[in-house]
Design brief:
Layout: E1 11-15, H1 18-21, H2 44-48, H3 71-85, E2 89-93, H4 96-99, H5 110-125, E3 129-135, H6 141-147, H7 154-169, E4 176-180, H8 190-194, H9 204-229, E5 234-240, E6 244-246, H10 251-273, H11 280-287, H12 297-300, E7 307-311, E8 316-318, E9 342-343, E10 349-350, H13 352-366, E11 370-374, H14 392-410, E12 415-421, E13 441-443, E14 455-457, H15 459-469
Parallel strand pairs: 1-2, 1-12, 2-3, 3-4, 4-5, 5-7, 6-8, 7-11, 11-12
Antiparallel strand pairs: 9-10, 13-14
């Protein structure tokens, strides 16, 4: 039999986030977070963008994160399903406010630490390596109210104290860590990305890039601490990935695409290379940004990540004439519609070759191992009369993207693993819907929070099990 192009130690699995899966939003001493304030429905986008300040819950709204899919109580059942598929890695996040309910305490919440110890121990029992994100779109609300979230330099100390607590409490259970999920999303969705809300006379760009600096310093310090606690720890950064294509070969369109790529890669340029990129100086000057730095910050930033992780759902298109009226707002990162590719039900372009392009670009740029930690198709699934979910469209999407990842490996790129997004159905971060499903496992819950929460294996469940068992050889 021919050898697989995937390395023998390649990590196969799936990914979720605490705020989209756990529910139990006030149980076990957990504090309220930013995502707990984001409603389903018409006001969702205004809250996510930080233009509508939400510091209190309302009785007339539904908040999907409060119950989610009840992973908090059902994680043993869910991890058993992942083990049945053959997962060797499971990406999840720690809810910061389960460990520090307010975010600025000295002593951690013992119940939160016990929960995650049990969760990670359950993974290890099944031979699954946890890949853990420290901050996945959930800042404790107390830090938003009291300090303005990442506007404040104080957040660096709160975050590094939280990070050290996690590295020490879960030492021996977790060795793969990510600092901030999709760190570049703070530019596009400031409240959901980084807990930022704006006053009417704010220079929003100034606020966002100052917050970015604080996160980048915190990430570098956390990386250093992780290596001090255990030299075996491996820490990655995490990019919302997907290249921008020029909409045409007009030079102005090519330049626009380059600028859009830089906007997203700015964060990873710092985290993977250890310094602000040369283009930042002009960017800041033109946007009227003055980033306040403390003495020693440039030294701190030299603690770079061990690997670069990223999400990839779709490629994007940019032109010099792009504006809010002609760009596709299906995804929070604005893009023009690409006429050469198909799109999902939610308007996201389906572009497997774009994944290979993105991976080659990133490895050329960073020369660090890559880890594809989110990839998948959000779609409406139908349960037929026999109780089956025949999601051939999802199998097709994943098959073509796994092939493209294999091509990138053949191109010479070291890739650590693959965790498809929402391996069990969860609440969509973009829309708050349950009906936008990604999983191999169907969860009986609707957009209003009704349903039994029963878990059902989809057709893709059995397909992915075969993919893993063959180390990516059997994709039929």
């Amino acid at each position: 039999m021919a050898e697989s192009i995937f390395p023998a130690d390649f990590l196969w699995g799936g990914a979720i986030a605490a705020n989209q899966a756990e529910g139990a939003y006030l149980e076990g001493g957990k504090g309220i977070t930013t995502v707990d304030m984001i409603p389903h429905g018409k006001d969702r986008m205004a809250v996510k963008l930080g233009v509508e300040k939400r510091f209190a819950l309302r009785d007339d709204e539904f908040y999907p994160s409060h119950g989610a899919i009840d992973f908090y109580h059902r994680y043993k059942e869910d991890i058993a399903l992942m083990a049945e598929m053959g997962f060797t890695v499971f990406r999840t996040s720690i809810a910061w406010s389960r460990i520090f309910p307010n975010g600025d305490e000295q002593q951690p919440n013992a119940a939160g630490i016990a929960f995650y110890r049990d969760l990670f121990s359950e993974c290890k029992k099944h031979g699954i390596e946890p890949l853990v994100t420290l901050c996945h779109f959930d800042v404790p609300m107390h830090l938003v109210r009291e300090y303005g979230s990442w506007r404040s330099r104080k957040m660096v100390d709160f975050f590094t104290h939280y990070a050290r607590t996690c590295f020490e409490a879960f030492d021996g259970l977790v060795k793969y860590w990510l600092t901030f999920n999709e760190i570049n999303i703070m530019l596009h969705s400031p409240f959901s990305g980084a807990g930022l809300v704006f006053e009417k006379d704010d220079n929003k760009e100034q606020v966002k890039y100052q917050a970015a600096h604080h996160e980048l310093v915190a990430s570098a310090l956390a990386t250093k601490i992780a290596h001090e606690v255990n030299p075996e720890n491996q820490v990655g950064c995490m990019l919302a990935g997907g290249n921008f294509y020029p909409y045409s070969c007009k030079p102005e369109d090519v330049w626009a695409a380059l600028e859009k790529d830089r906007e997203n890669l700015f964060f990873i340029d710092v985290q993977a290379r250890g310094a602000y990129p040369s283009y930042a100086r002009r960017l800041f000057k033109e946007k009227g940004i003055v980033v306040e730095m403390e003495p020693g910050d440039s030294e701190i930033l030299k603690d770079t990540v061990d690997f670069v992780s990223f999400s990839y759902y779709a490629s994007r298109c940019a032109s010099a004439d792009m504006n809010d009226n002609n760009s596709n707002a299906a995804n929070i990162v604005k893009s023009l519609k690409n006429p050469y590719i198909e799109a999902s039900e939610w308007g996201w372009g389906i572009d497997p070759l774009g994944l290979r392009i993105t991976m080659n670009m990133m490895y050329d740029r960073y020369q660090k191992p890559l880890f594809l930690v989110e990839n998948g198709l959000g779609a409406k699934d139908v349960v037929n009369e026999q109780g089956e979910i025949n999601d051939d469209y999802r199998i097709s999407y994943l098959r073509e993207h796994i092939k493209a990842m294999g091509e990138a490996i053949e191109d010479g790129i070291p890739v650590m693993g693959y965790t498809s997004w929402g391996c069990i159905d969860l609440v969509s971060a973009s829309t708050g819907e349950m009906s936008k499903r990604y999983g191999f496992v169907y969860v009986d819950r609707d957009d209003q929070g009704n349903g039994t929460l029963a878990r059902t294996r989809k057709k893709s469940f059995h397909w992915y099990k075969k993919v893993i068992a063959s180390n990516g050889m059997d994709l039929d």
